[in-house]
Amino acid sequence: RQRRRTGVVAQATDKTAKSVAFDESLLDGSKVRIGIISTRWNPTVVGALKDAATATLTELGVKEENVFETQVPGSWELPSAARFLALSGRVDAILCLGCLVKGDTMHFEYIAQAVSSGLMSVQLQTSVPCTFGVLTTLTEEQAALRSYADGADNHGVSWAKTAVEMALLRQSALGMDKKTNVALGFATDDASANGKPGKVGEKKIYF
């Protein structure tokens, strides 16, 4: 049978979904503010992810002055930096970019678990969505195929789209942008009648 949700059409059987398609025309980023936190560790991989994410944000209408960027040493530091940015009130969603490749010790498992749990805690505690843009791969080749390699499925693209979608969802849920026609599950039918959009940052900053 066919199940419909806001912006999503899913063809599903009783037990498993066969395919899911999202209407990307809903992703109007012209009034959202996005933070990008990237790691200096694994610069080739992370740099490719960030370039793809930034280009995608531009395609979705996010203004350059509404993109706030900074770097941290590695993935371990992402949750702390995300919390600082979330508490600043400058962004509607945060995209955290990094890459962890499994080695010979348990270091990979400890870091991956801590970072994913930390970012989840940040978004739940601050009500600012944090997109988990950290590749967790078994080999360098797997990381390359998801970032910079020829014909790669660069995950920075989908992560940027997720950040914009969640930023819009947050604005809708909190009544921050009632003039838009995008209602991702929360806005009422007359949401465009009153209210003003959330404040927009004036310039790109490094925090």
Write the layout of secondary structure elements.
Layout: E1 2-5, E2 8-12, E3 17-22, E4 34-39, H1 43-59, E5 67-72, H2 78-88, E6 93-101, H3 107-126, E7 130-137, H4 140-145, H5 155-174
Parallel strand pairs: 4-5, 4-6, 6-7
Antiparallel strand pairs: 1-2, 2-3
Helix pairs in contact: 1-5, 2-3
Distance between the termini: 49 Å
Round the mean pLDDT to the nearest integer and report it.
Answer: 84
Oligomer: single chain
Number of strands: 7
SSE order, as H and E? EEEEHEHEHEHH
User: Treating each run of at least 4 consecutive H or I residues as one helix, how many helices?
Assistant: 5
Radius of gyration: 18 Å
Low-confidence segments: 1-18, 181-207
Summarize the structure.
The protein is α/β, with parallel strands linked by helices and 207 residues long.
Q: What are the key terms here?
A:
disordered C terminus, globular, disordered N terminus, 207 residues, 3-stranded antiparallel β-sheet, 5 helices, single chain, alpha/beta
